């Protein structure tokens, strides 16, 4: 048995001269004093697949898991409970030790280990659809830690009673400890503090304003400076997309220089300015200027909101918050259509544009409640007291030890998700170009190409032609085009909810194929209907189907693939290039669709159908399915990642039954461990001299 193992086990014994007596770690171990147990190492042979009980748990709906978690094995109802059949008693505070491959020791509870793993593996982005990855990681680590707990318990029983656990006892403990730890890890998903609520509210208002301005040009088109040309109006619509990529680029620089909070406030002022310019414009050319300013603000919002909420929220909440901001965007589109019924007239169209400024001004009133990103503060100064104060407010912590543990999670995750090589001893800058790395790495290159292809398909599928020019499209199809436009907005909101349900159950490649195929068929039906073979109502239904199929696949998946399939260090670079390409394609659709519609008439959706057919073929032949997101795959990665580590006192049940020791106690314990190392070296020297 190694030196570290015997020390951590709490073993006491004398050397030949009786001069050395090891100090006991029994007060920190579930095994008590005078018990010898070795650390356990993860390996393919020792760590099996996910237990069947936990797999069943994982397959349940999120709401069912939340309802059942406490009933199954909640630590709050099981305090003081022992394993009974295993003969272990909970007399001591439990804290796990990890011995790294370089010999360093780290002390964390299993829950803290799990949260650290989540911080490292889930990118700092609030992205709709990330719930699946977040939950799979929690399930995988719960099983991983439970298997280590069971292995160590089996060794302990063999050392003390001479008997190993039988298969039934192992499976029982494995399942119980897995569910217990999963229950603890997913507390973050249902715990939301008031400061975080305000942050989500303010950020969601930015996305709402962006959605509102996507569709606001639809209804008032006949009344805004009547007599304008097709080219002038298409330029007014497309100016939104001219400002978008500029805003996305500036947002990254502002966020790094002035902080996430400062960049969000600048974006809010841009919405106010752009809305006022549009509302007070004396000509269509000034409307174009205001539209471009709002485009800058919208482009900045697409970058800042996911980053800001991702850096404030714990990993288990980032997918949920991303979903909320996505709903804010599609609701904004719907509200713009509804407002059109009241204000889309010769005297009211200016008020439609002014609502952008009014909403942004209301958001500005809430900014005193807006907190700075703790990750940004820690990146500038790892000892930042302000960052610690914000973390304490965001998480509702009561003790400084909890805050410091969370700080370590932030710092560790930031390091693991960085492209900087900390081991570079060349003396120069160790920063690497993540974009260059992605294209040089053969394993990542296909993902990059897939991401770019899907971003092109996202816009060239023609979805924004519907939201920008639905009034133009529905003219002649139904009596009041605004009714059709509003109907599409309402269906868009419902389809977003359906997409959320499907993304928890279906693979990403599968959803892309269904989405592109469904949109392709819808385009064909639209063209056939507009040529008189079907009624206008069939054409309206085909457009509704077209929007629905977009929301379940080509809408969210191109963005989600970046967050799910790329390593953390590549996510920011991949998201940046995706954003720029998406805005560029958006500009071309907004600028040229009126000309396409004028030239092709009933066949105006034909080019979109061709793009969708090519997208389906690409997904079928080349697009890889999202890998590493099932619990079994993630657990296998954890085994590989941690193969060089030894785990000691991996006590999940003790963790749930007792509060962790204070920081002072652990400093004393680690100091005692160092004393033991010195004493052992002296003992070995005396023995060798004899």
Topology readout:
Layout: H1 3-9, H2 52-59, H3 62-73, E1 96-99, E2 105-108, H4 110-121, H5 131-161, H6 167-185, H7 194-215, H8 230-279, H9 284-312, H10 318-343, H11 349-365, H12 374-380, H13 385-395, H14 400-416, H15 434-440, H16 442-460, H17 463-474, H18 481-503, H19 508-530, H20 536-552, H21 557-565, H22 568-600, H23 606-621, H24 631-641, E3 646-648, H25 652-657, H26 663-689
Antiparallel strand pairs: 1-2, 1-3
Helix pairs in contact: 1-26, 3-6, 4-5, 4-14, 5-6, 5-24, 7-8, 7-9, 7-10, 7-11, 8-9, 8-11, 8-22, 9-10, 10-11, 10-18, 12-13, 12-14, 13-14, 16-21, 16-22, 16-23, 17-18, 17-22, 18-20, 19-20, 19-23
Give the radius of gyration. Answer: 29 Å
Global mean pLDDT: 78
Biggest sheet architecture? 3 strands, antiparallel
Structural shape: elongated
Main β-sheet, spatial strand arrangement: 2-1-3
Q: What structural category characterises the helix and strand content? A: mainly alpha
H/I helix tally: 26
Low-confidence stretches: 1-28, 68-93, 421-430, 657-661
Q: What is the succession of H and E elements?
A: HHHEEHHHHHHHHHHHHHHHHHHHHHEHH
| Number of DSSP strand runs | 3
Oligomer: single chain
Strand content: under 5%
**Helicity, as a percent range:** 55-70%
Distance between the termini: 23 Å
């Amino acid at each position: 048995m190694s030196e570290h193992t015997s020390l951590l086990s709490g073993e006491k014994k004398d050397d030949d001269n009786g001069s050395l007596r090891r100090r006991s770690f029994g007060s920190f171990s579930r095994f008590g004093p005078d018990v010898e147990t070795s650390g356990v190492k993860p390996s393919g042979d020792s760590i099996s697949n996910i237990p069947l009980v936990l797999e069943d748990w994982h397959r349940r709906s999120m709401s069912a898991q939340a309802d059942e978690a406490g009933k199954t094995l909640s630590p709050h109802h099981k305090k003081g409970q022992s394993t009974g059949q295993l003969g272990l008693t909970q007399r001591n505070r439990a804290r796990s030790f990890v011995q790294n491959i370089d010999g360093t020791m780290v002390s964390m509870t299993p829950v803290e280990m799990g949260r650290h793993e989540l911080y490292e593996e889930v990118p700092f982005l609030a992205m709709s659809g990330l719930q699946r990855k977040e939950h799979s990681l929690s399930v995988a680590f719960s099983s991983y830690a439970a298997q280590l707990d069971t292995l160590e318990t089996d060794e302990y029983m063999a050392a003390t009673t001479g008997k190993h656990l039988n298969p039934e006892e192992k499976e029982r403990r494995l399942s119980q400890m897995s569910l217990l730890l999963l229950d603890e890890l997913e507390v973050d998903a249902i715990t939301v503090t008031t400061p975080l609520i305000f942050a989500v509210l303010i950020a969601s208002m930015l996305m709402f304003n962006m959605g509102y301005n996507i569709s606001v040009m639809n209804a008032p088109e006949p009344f805004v400076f009547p007599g304008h040309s097709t080219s002038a109006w298409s330029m007014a619509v497309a100016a939104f997309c001219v400002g978008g990529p500029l805003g996305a680029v500036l947002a990254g620089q502002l966020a790094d220089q002035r902080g996430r909070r400062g960049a969000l406030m600048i974006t809010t002022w841009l919405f106010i300015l752009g809305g006022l310019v549009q509302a007070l414009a004396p000509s269509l050319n000034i409307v174009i200027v205001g539209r471009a300013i709002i485009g800058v603000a919208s482009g900045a919002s697409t970058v800042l909101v996911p980053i800001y909420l991702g850096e404030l929220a714990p990993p288990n909440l980032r997918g949920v918050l991303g979903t909320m901001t996505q709903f804010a965007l599609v609701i904004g589109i719907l509200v713009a259509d509804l407002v059109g019924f009241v204000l889309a007239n010769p005297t009211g169209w200016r008020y439609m544009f002014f609502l952008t400024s009014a909403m942004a001004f209301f958001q500005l009133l809430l900014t005193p409640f807006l907190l700075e990103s703790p990750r940004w503060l820690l990146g500038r100064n790892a000892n930042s007291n302000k960052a610690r104060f914000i973390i304490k407010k965001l998480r509702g912590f009561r003790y400084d030890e909890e805050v410091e543990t969370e700080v370590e999670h932030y710092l560790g995750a930031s390091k693991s998700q960085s492209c900087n090589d900390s081991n570079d001893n060349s003396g120069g800058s160790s920063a690497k170009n993540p974009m260059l790395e992605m294209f040089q790495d053969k394993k990542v290159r296909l993902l990059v190409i897939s991401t770019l292809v899907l971003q092109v398909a996202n816009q060239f599928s023609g979805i924004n032609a519907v939201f920008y020019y639905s009034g133009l499209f529905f003219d002649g199809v139904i009596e009041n085009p605004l009714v059709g436009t509003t109907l599409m907005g309402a269906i868009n909101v419902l389809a977003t909810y359906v997409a959320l349900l499907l993304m928890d159950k279906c693979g990403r490649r599968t959803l892309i194929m269904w989405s592109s195929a469904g949109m392709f068929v819808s385009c064909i039906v639209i063209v056939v209907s507009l040529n008189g073979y079907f009624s206008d109502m069939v054409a309206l239904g085909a457009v509704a189907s077209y929007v629905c199929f977009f929301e379940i696949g080509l809408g969210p998946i191109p963005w989600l693939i970046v967050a799910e399939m790329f390593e953390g260090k590549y996510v920011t670079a991949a998201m940046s290039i995706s954003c720029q390409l998406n805005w560029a394609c958006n500009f071309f659709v907004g600028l040229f669709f009126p000309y396409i519609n004028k030239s092709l008439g009933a066949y105006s959706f034909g080019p979109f159908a061709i793009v969708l057919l090519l997208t389906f073929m690409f997904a079928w032949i080349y697009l890889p399915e999202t890998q590493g997101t099932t619990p079994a795959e993630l657990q296998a990665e954890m085994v590989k990642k941690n193969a060089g580590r030894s785990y000691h006192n991996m006590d999940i049940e003790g963790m749930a039954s007792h509060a962790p020791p204070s920081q002072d106690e652990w400093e004393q314990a680690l100091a005692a461990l160092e004393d033991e190392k010195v004493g052992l070296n002296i003992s070995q020297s005396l023995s060798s001299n004899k």
